[in-house]
Amino acid sequence: MMKTFLASRRSVLVGLAATVAGASLALTGLVHAQAQDCPRSPQMDERFCDRDGDLVADAPEDPSEWIDPDTLIFAYTPVEDPSVYENVWAEFLEHLAEVTGKNVEYFGVQSNAAQLEAMRAGRLHVTGFNTGSVPLAVNAVGFRPFAMMASLDGSFGYEMEIIVRADSDIQTLEDVRGRQMAFTSPTSNSGFKAPSALLQAEFDMIEGRDFEAVFSGSHENSILGVVNGDYDVASIANSVLTRMDARGAVNKNDLRSIYVSQTFPTTGYGYVYNLKPELAEKVKEAFFTFEWEGTKLAEEFGKSGEEQFIPITYKEYWEVIRQIDEIQGVEYRL
C-alpha cells in the first residue's frame, strides 16, 4: 500500500534521531565560489551556480551554453531488463515528443554510473534517477529534478525492506552477522545507503567486518537472488517487489521481511541543467499533462499505487536523503 511521506523529514531512520540532530547543516548553506557572482553548495561541482539557493544548478546565463538537441534522450533508472521498461514508457515518450516537438529516444541504462556519466557527457537529457542517486546527480552532473510519481490522492513513497527467503533461519537483523547481504549499488538509498546507516548505528555492524556485501546491480536482481538462494539477505525498495509480485515475476509468499523502514521519496524525474529553458519548460509540461489512464505506465506503476506525476523540489523532498548521506560522510563526486 502506498504510504504518505512522514511529516518529520528530519528523521532518517529509527534510532538515528540523535545523530541527525547533531549533524552539520553545511550542505544547505551556500558559499561563494571563486567568482563572487556564482554561489553554490560546498558539495556542488564548480561548473555550476546556484544563485537562488534551491540547491540545484541554475541554467547558464549565457544562451550560447544552452543545448537544444534535435533528439531528446530519455532514460529510466537501471532495471533487470531495460527492454521491458522501454515498452512501459513508450506512450509517455510519444507524448513528450508531441509536446516538445522533438524526436525522443529511450536509452536503456545498465547501471547508475552509466546513467550519471551519460548526463555529464551531454548524452542524456531527461531521466529518472533513483532516490539515492538524486543528490549525486544534482551536485555532480547538473540534474534538475522537478517531478515524482504519486497516487491520485497525492501520497507517495516507498519503504526500504530487508528481506530473506521465507524458509530462512535469519529472523532478525542480528542474524545477518557472518552472512552475505546483497545491495543494489553504492548510490542507491534503499539498496545500500539507508541499510548501511541502520546496521552501523543500531547494531554496530559494518560491511566487511560483520557481514559480506555483494552488489547485484538492481532491486530486481536482489529480489530474484534471494528467491533463488543466491543471496542470504537483501535490502530492497518494497515498491519494486510489489510490482514484480503483481506481474508474476516473483511470489511475495516466497520471501519474508525482517525490517521495514520509514517512508522515502521515490524516483526523481528531471532534466539536465543546460537544456534550453523554453525546452525545459516543455519537458515539465509533458510530465504534468500526460494522461495516465489506460496506458502501460499506469498498468506497471499502478501496481505500487503510482498514478500521476506531482511537482517536487529537491531542497524539501530530498532533505532526509541528504541527511543520511551526511551521516555517512558521502561526497557528491564522480
Individual helix count? 12
Characterize the main sheet.
6 strands, mixed
β-strand percent reads 15-25%
CATH class of the largest domain: Alpha Beta
Tell me the domain tally. Answer: 2
Strand order across the biggest sheet? 4-3-5-12-6-13
The N- to C-terminal Cα distance equals 35 Å
Overall helicity: 25-40%
According to DSSP, the number of beta strands is 13
* Weakly predicted, low-confidence segments: 1-35
Average pLDDT value?
88
**Rg over CA atoms:** 20 Å
H/E order of the elements? HEEEHHEHEHEEEHEHEHEEHHEHH
CATH level-4 homologous superfamily of the largest domain: Periplasmic binding protein-like II
Under CATH, the topology of the largest domain can be stated as D-Maltodextrin-Binding Protein, domain 2
Oligomer status: single chain
Q: What is the structure about, briefly put?
A:
The chain is of the alpha/beta class and 334 residues long. It contains twelve helices and 13 strands. The strands form three sheets. Strands 4-3-5-12-6-13 form a six-stranded mixed β-sheet, with helices on both faces. The chain has a five-stranded mixed β-sheet with strand order 9-8-10-7-11. A two-stranded antiparallel ribbon has the order 1-2.
What does this structure look like?
- It is a single chain.
- The longest helix has 15 residues, at 189-203.
- The chain has a six-stranded mixed sheet, sandwiched between helices. Strands 9-8-10-7-11 form a five-stranded mixed sheet.
- The chain folds into two domains: 17-155 and 266-328, 3-Layer(aba) Sandwich (D-Maltodextrin-Binding Protein, domain 2); 158-264, 3-Layer(aba) Sandwich (D-Maltodextrin-Binding Protein, domain 2).
- The protein has 334 residues and is of the alpha/beta class.
- Residues 1-35 have low confidence and may be disordered.
- The chain is built from twelve helices and 13 strands.
